[in-house]
Amino acid sequence: MNARFGSLTWRGALILASVILVMTAGCASKKNQYPPVPVDQRDLTVQEGYFYEIAPGDQVNIFVLGFEELSGSVPVRPDGMLTTPLIEDVQASGKTPTQLARDLEKQFAVYVRSPVVTVIVNGFVGLPSQQVRVIGEAMKPAAVPFRKHMTLLDLMIEVGGLTEFAAGNKSVLVRYADGQQRQYSVRLDDLIRDGRIEENIGLLPGDILIIPESWF
Asked: What is the pTM of this model?
């Protein structure tokens, strides 16, 4: 009787402990749950007004009409500056190609009459504020240069998808808007593994995607 009673007590304790663990996990999940991305920030219209800004590491082609000796391809240095013939240091990082072209025209005007400059960017790197980062249980966590019309699915293709340990539906998107940081839940399992395309959202420069590890 005592042995049997002890066995039943032990089994009951295990069951009780399992129930408590599940309930605790469920409560923790609810506490950590963030709201979904708002409807007005889900489609690609959220990206209107985006223009690429030159970053350190970019390769820039400078063409000065009628002056081949002033034209050429130069790198943007780690300090954000570049050097061209006749001009030693020009701030390039943080400017659009058009803005840089107008600045170069002002600099070249000291040496030539009415210069016309065109700037073409190759080998895009992207400023940190214009990258999208993926950390956690992605196959290849990375900082990816943002490009217009980029979606969550595009980003997951870039990083090779989810690992087998990923809790995709508990992923979090960190977004900076109007000077504030906001966190939203995204359902990567539903998107990638179940093909629920409604979970595919438009991204913004500076977004951070956090993919946690599954405990079960």
From this structure: 0.76
